[in-house]
Amino acid sequence: MSERILCVGDLLRQRGVSRRDFLQYTSVMASLLALPPSAAPALAEGLAKARRQAVIWLSFQECTGCIESLTRSFSPSLEDLIFDFISLDYQHALQAASGEAAEAARRQSMKDNAGKYIVVVDGSVPTADGGVYSCIAGQSNIDMLAETVADAAAVVAVGTCAAFGGLPQAHPNPTGAVSISTLVKNKPVVNIPGCPPMPQAMAGTLVHLLSFGKLPELDPLNRPRAFFGETIHDRCYRRPFYEKGMFAKSFDDEGARQGWCLYELGCKGPVTYNACASQKWNGGVSFPIQSGHGCIGCSEAGFWDRGGLYQPLSAGTTDMGKVIGIAAVAGVALGAGSAAIARKRQADYAATDKKEA
Amino acid sequence: MDLLDFARGPALQVALAVFVLGTLWRLAGVLLLPRLRDLSPAREGAPAPLAGALRIIVRRMWPRPEFAQATMFMTINSWIFHVGLAVVVFGLAPHILFIRNLLGLHWPALPSNLVYGVGVVTLASLVAVLVRRLRHPVMRLLSHAGDYISWLMTALPVATGLLATAHIGARYETLLALHILSIAALLVWFPFGKLMHALLFAFSRGATGIRFSHRGVEV
Amino acid sequence: MNAPASTTLPKPNFDRQGEQGYQERVDAAMRSFVREFGVTAALHMESCVRCGLCAEACHFYIATRDPKYTPVHKLELFRRAYFREASPFAPVVRALGLVKKPTIDELQRWQELIYDSCTMCGRCTLVCPMGIDIAELVKEARHGMYKAGLIPERLALMDRTARQWGSPATPAEDLPDILQEVSAEHGVPIPCDLAQADILVTAAPAELGDHTKALADAAKILNRIGVKWTMHQEGFDASNIGFNNGDMELQERLTRALVDTAVKIGAKTILLPECGHAYGAARWEAAKWYGAALPVRIIHMTEFLDELLASGQIRVNKIADSATFHDPCQIVRRGGLEAAARRVLAALGFELIELQDAGVSGFCCGGGGGVVSNIRATPLRAKVFEMKKAQVEATGAKRFVTSCGQCRITLEQGAKNTHWTKKTESLLELVADNLAQ
User: Fold this and answer.
1) Which residues in chain C have their CB less than 8 angstroms from residue A356's CB?
2) Residues of chain A where predicted confidence (pLDDT) is lower than 70
3) A338 and A263 in a common domain
């Protein structure tokens, strides 16, 4: 019997997934990716013919929230199906192997799929003190990242930590945490930020890669436009209250109960690019604002250092008290000084005039 | 740190520091100059100096009827943009939050759409006064670079604020950053140009009010 | 004092006094300017927002529409001195060279703005939204111009005369003869140089020159009320040309001459003539030069008449004519006697028809602040007079009254030059001529 490498379509058929279900999945995915209707068949065909894609998932300074988000599911789920399309050769939370065996599996996949595997990374990389603050199997994250992406086809930085540095990078950044794109310069890097990212953003990007063999359209920060093209504010259902100036002033006050805008309670929706307001979470059930809490801007860089989650966007982010106090004292002193200089000049002139008279 | 973080953070901090330092320097530097006591007797029945000062501070908000015709444009137009600026600065919810963050004071906001409308009228009024300054022979003779900078520093926040709320011209976070930076620029410029009249007007009018109420003149 | 009419504008020129070098003049002016900046002057210099409203109040601007007559523009060099030397940021301004020191050329050209086209009438002060007392600042700037020897020659001449004679009009030693002549002409006793009196009566160039009848009018009223009064050689001219020219030393000397003489003869009151600048100098500024509150009461003729009429000490026959009144700037807008003047007019029985701009906002006659004596300013003054004349005519009033000798002379000159038949009358003369028995 000839060794035929099974493609995704074959595998699905083997599992009993009907063509109808498959087409349904791909048309939904096409719509999530904001592709035109004509693209759906192309997506389906591409995906059916695709080989199971080797994926190596590196986890560095992270909280495991990203993989939790991806796997959070109702069964059967869109995200669940992705695992039929990829060969997840290395992932700390999901892999069966551990220790040396896990690392060996990683290296073997790199060898077998050289130039074709995708590296997904979550968590930031510490760089301070030689990168000692996060090591796996005795290897620093810096070294493991460099080694693993060397023969990768593309890198997907998942979560705000990998995309932008995230929480570990928050002031004073004791570990010297940096984003993946700071270290990876010679491979295409896609950023899928969020703390955690939306599961459909991660899944959709991978599906696009699989089906079309290229990355989806990215914005200047390398985020897929399909999911990060608009702000929360642009699609927020509470927008009419914002326009009218009806704001909740505290949690559980009358305005809050009426569902008014949460701007005064620190909502960062206007400056946060993500799909939460339109696609929502947990299968479209809700999202933070709908649940009564302002957006914390978790998919934006540095969201921890923006002056506080409850600091409204129009307020300053630093404590002005001391600075203003010093400035005030200095101002009065300088004023008194210049008045003294003026008076002295006047006195000198009076003396000169007297002499001349 | 992106532009917005810079604007809301170091830029505002430096701007406020310069604003406070410069304003107090200028005020103290003027108010601590020699003071001449008026030793002449006041007119019989003259009000107390403070009353005389307060009276003129209020009275000079509007010209005497004899001057109304000749000063109509400047009077009406100036009222429009001064009131407009006050409504926008003190009436818009995000601005009130800015002040609350600084001073701990807050008050009810006006409907945002109303404020946007006032903002448009204010900007138009500011443009009108600029045109006047550029065309009227008297104002052209009097005006110098500082006057045009003061105009720009006042108009930019209004313009950038309107652009930000309308989401026109760039991504929102950029527009917001530019708006906050324009406020920072205004704060830095304030102590050094004629915008200082916002604080000086009371003292300047007051001094003349004291002088003339002492003499029994109804100015 | 009677200037020939001229309709051509003078070529830009200036007069110089003294032998100082150019740099010395500039330095002297700057030193003087800087010394003026106490709190009030500084506040005013800081507060201008260049709104241009002051121009709309100034009769010189209105009459010519030339922007250079904008009142605050007349303070330009004074402003530069302030920002360069006395303002809060002056050290930085100097270090960075942000404001230039005036040049001799600028200072000389500035003389015309400060002396020819400003009567210090204060109408600009009235309209300024920032309450800047531009008229007062012009007066302070004149101090520096005087020190620099850059005032109009005619004013400098009068200044030298006043320094010598105690009056620009009359040597002190001539006073007794003048008073004797007037007394004889009008049949009214006029005491002079009494060793003791309760009221020291003073005059101004108008009373000592063109309108000597005013001396007799005052005498008539004073004699009627039976007070012990006198005029005195050592302090007889209250007009204080130092106040006008910017000669501070002279201003102080003339002020002291009045006060010291009053004290010497035991007088408790100094009666000022119908003169505007006399009032400003003696009533409001004298204490500053004297260095303390005055030991005497200063009262203007108009106030005096008002008090006498109100208390019934004198009564007048009523004149059933319509009249309009020119408010002298220094006693009404800058002096506070608007109501007093009108009470006197009412007592005289006039049907008062106010000018379109009357009371505190009345237009200046155009001759105040030394402008009437400044030959160079004649054409400008003529233009301003046309405005005043038009307003008087518009009332249709029969009589035209004022209460300042210099205003009266200015208006009479204008009337003569334009062949206007309206006579300018004085409150004092009207009261004296209509005293009831």
Assistant:
1) 28
2) 1-5, 73-83
3) no
